[in-house]
Amino acid sequence: MKAEQIIPVLRIFDYHKTLEFYIDWLGFEIAWEHHFDENTPVYMEVKKDNIVLHLSEHHGDASPGSSVFVWGEGIAEYHKELIDKKYKYNRPGLEKAFYDAISFTVHDPFGNKIIFNEKFDAQKHSVLQFYSNE
Fold this sequence. Notes:
Domain VOC: 2-119
Number of helices: 3
Shape: globular
Radius of gyration: 16 Å
Pfam families: Glyoxalase_7
Number of strands: 8
Largest sheet: 4 strands, mixed
CATH class: Alpha Beta
CATH superfamily: 2,3-Dihydroxybiphenyl 1,2-Dioxygenase, domain 1
Strand order of the largest sheet: 1-4-3-2
GO biological process, one term: response to antibiotic
Keywords: Antibiotic resistance, Dioxygenase, Oxidoreductase
CATH topology: 2,3-Dihydroxybiphenyl 1,2-Dioxygenase, domain 1
Order of helices and strands: EHEEEEHEEEH
Helix content: 10-25%
Number of domains: 1
InterPro entries: Bleomycin-R, Glyas_Bleomycin-R_OHBP_Dase, VOC_core
Structural class: alpha/beta
């Protein structure tokens, strides 16, 4: 077997809070959304570059409190972009993680978290300020 893509499913509870967090703040876009009937829970796909998430209001699709771990590039720049938006519910710190990466974690309104990571490069990241748990 060879997996072509892995898409985490995260549980959500409020459509408008979902848009505020994932679309307005994190900068994802809605790829599609589905309702079985009018006034039923939404199941949607959001994406940002090559990060794809499925978000579901349906009971049993996923457990609140899940984590998604993302490796990427430009993490410090993305962190600055988010901080500059002054979103009142999240102000994540940027840190140098014990696994030799720069990292920050965001918590969605439903208890899920996304951990954004980039391999640490001393030349590239030497001028950045980090808040570390070390």
